[in-house]
Amino acid sequence: MSVAIRLIGAPTDVGAGSRGASMGPEALRVAGLREALQALGLRVDDQGNLAGPANPWQPPLDGYRHLPEVVAWNRAVFMAVRDALDAATLPVLLGGDHSLAVGSIGAVAAHCRARGRKLRVLWLDAHADFNTSAITPTGNLHGMPVACLCGHGPQELLALSGTVPAIAPHCLRQIGIRSVDAGEKRLVHGVGLDVFDMRTIDELGMRQVMDMALAGLDDETHLHVSFDVDFLDPDIAPGVATTVRGGPSYREAQLCMEMIADTGLLGSLDVMELNPAYDVRNRTAELAVDLIESLFGKATLMRA
C-alpha cells in the first residue's frame, strides 16, 4: 500500500453513555500506532486532534442526548475526512465514540458519489447501532449512527453528507453483532441490513463470514472499515464502556483484519470507543494497534 495515511483524532464522548472515550486517540498514540504503521513502510501524517464542544453531561432532550454537540463534532469529522480523501490520503479516524461515524462515513459516501465509485462499509461492532429517538432506551447517539446513515435520525445529522440517506443499506455489512434492542431488531430487518452476528460466526467460522462480507468487491469499490473496539471479546479487550461477552477471539479478529487487507481495497478506517478508563495498562489500545497493523498488511503467518 503506497498511499499516505492521515491520522485524525476526535477526542470526544458526547455521544456515549460513559465518560472516557475522549481519551481514546491519545491511548492509541501511546500504544505506538504511528510508529507501528511506519514500521510497515507506510507514510503516516498525524494531524493531531480536532476541536469541538465539551461534553455537557445532560439528560436527553426530545429523545437525543447532546444533539448539538454531536452535530458539531460530526461536522468537524466530516470536513477532516473529506479533506484527507481529497488529498488522496487514507483517513484513519481515532475516536471518540461511535456517533462520529455519521461524519466519517458521510464524507466517504460523498467522496464516492462525486467520483462514481462504489462503497462497501464493514461495521465491526457488538451492537447494531440502529436505534432512533423513538426506541432508544438512553438517548445516547453512539447507538444511532447506522440508523442516521440509512436515513433515520435528526435532520441535522442526516443532511451532513448532502444526500439522504447518506448510504444505501445494501452497502453495509455488520460483523460480530451480539447485542440488539428489540425495536432495533425490527428496524434492521425492515431495511434489510446484512448482519453476520456471532452465531453466524460460530456456525460458519470467520473465514466464510468474511468471504461473504467481502463478496462482490472490485477495483471500483472504496472499502471503509468502522471498527468499534467492543467488537472484540472483553476477555482480550476490556478497555471499552460497552462490553458484551462472547465476541471474536484474538485469532478470529486477526483473520478478519488479514482478509480485509488481502483485498487491497481499504480506503478509510474508524477506530472507535476505546476507553482507557476501563482498560488495564493500555492493553486494549495495544491490541487495537496490533489489529490495525494486520489491517494494513502485516502478515502473522509464514506465507510467501
UniProtKB/TrEMBL annotation:
InterPro entries named in the record: Arginase, Ureohydrolase, Ureohydrolase_dom_sf, Ureohydrolase_Mn_BS
Catalytic activity line of the entry: L-arginine + H2O = urea + L-ornithine
Gene Ontology molecular function terms on file: arginase activity; manganese ion binding
Chain residues that bind Mn(2+): 98, 125, 127, 129, 228, 230
Superkingdom assignment: Bacteria
One protein family per Pfam: Arginase
Enzyme class: hydrolase
Pathway membership: Nitrogen metabolism; urea cycle; L-ornithine and urea from L-arginine: step 1/1
Cofactor: Mn(2+)
Gene3D superfamilies found in the cross-reference section: Ureohydrolase domain
GO BP annotations, alphabetical order: arginine metabolic process; urea cycle
Record's cofactor remark: Binds 2 manganese ions per subunit.
Enzyme Commission number(s): 3.5.3.1
Annotated PROSITE patterns: ARGINASE_1, ARGINASE_2
Family classification: Belongs to the arginase family.
Designated name of the protein: Arginase
